[in-house]
Amino acid sequence: LMKLKEASQDMNEMEEKNQDEKCHDFMTGETSVSSSQTHKTDSRNLQMRVHTGESSLTCQQCGKSFSRKGTLKVHMRIHTGENPFICSQCGKRFRQKTTLDTHLKVHTGEKPHTCQQCGKSFSRKGSLKIHLRVHTGEKPFICTQCGRRFRYKESLRAHMTIHSEEKPFICSQCGKRFRQRKYLKAHLTDHNGEKPHTCQQCGKSFTVKGNLKTHMKVHTEEKPFICSQCGKSFRHKESFNNHMRIHSGENLFICHQCKRSFTDINHLKNHVKNHTAVKPYICRQCEKSFTYRANLEDHMRIHTGEKPFTCPQCGKSFTVKGTLKIHIRVHTGEKPYKCLECEECFTHHTELKRHLQTHVTTETNQTIFNK
Fold first, then answer.
1. Mapping DSSP to helix (H, G, I), strand (E, B) and coil, where does residue 101 land?
2. How many helices and strands in the chain, by DSSP H and E?
3. Which part of the chain is the C2H2-type domain (predicted)?
4. Are 180 and 160 in contact (CB under 8 A)?
5. Residue 179 and residue 169 in contact, taking contact as beta carbons nearer than 8 Å
6. For 77-127, what is each residue's pLDDT tens digit?
């Protein structure tokens, strides 16, 4: 079917070429019976290759076969790196004219392909097709190692680096290695202190545009993902998926050093740093070191006395956002930490930890009494 489709496209290209040559003959006054017969012969030969599935032209570098010389010529540009079609506005080069034509819509702002469900428009039909997976929930790309599914091929490719342990992208300043180029790029801003993406509502700046996008949900208070088991809501689908593993008991991410398992890849990454003991961020005032830049920034407020996180109900201020989050439970009455033995609930995980010791002591005393 693919060969028929490819050959059909080749026939369309040949027809266009024939029309161009006929037009040239008309303009110059030249006619050629032999040329006309050649075109007819070429068309018949191509039609025969469509029906028989024959591909007579083969790429000497990769072995891929084609039914038409022109298609092989375009294909060869993959190997030669030739990009003959140049955008007059930005200078970007392309292998095929159709790709250039699609690119030009970026400059013109033309987006002829519109989603019927949400109204979002795209410059390419293929981009619309990929976008529709958001509505259909289709995730055609599956990880062969853990079975996780992805909407986009790029997402699967990025995910596979978790399993491979390969980190080909190296920071030239500190030698830190990364699985993906985008993570290295984000890391480099830590060295130069650049934070080009600024929130228009609170002025907070971010090194990565995606982090700003995530931050904006703090202002909208949008939490569309709700757990059906405990009612907890989340801003991000990934956080929701990680939370659901708490109920299912599923732990996908395992530490190779101590075999401890985690529901979230980020929790595993944080845990691994306990083994490596790498703390590159050092406080210049007291020389205390930290694993993460954000932790250093939180710590610096101890020296400056800054308390930017304020409770909207009682006005009490805190140096760390997490402390404010815990404090708010005093007002809401939320107690998310539950003892599995007696079902008593607690505001903070340290309270639950202390409480669990009472069960251990009771069991120990009971054992001694029975003896």
1. helix
2. 14, 22
3. 57-84, 85-112, 113-140, 141-168, 169-196, 197-224, 225-252, 253-280, 281-308, 309-336, 337-364
4. no
5. yes
6. 888 888 899 999 888 898 888 888 888 888 888 888 899 988 888 888 888
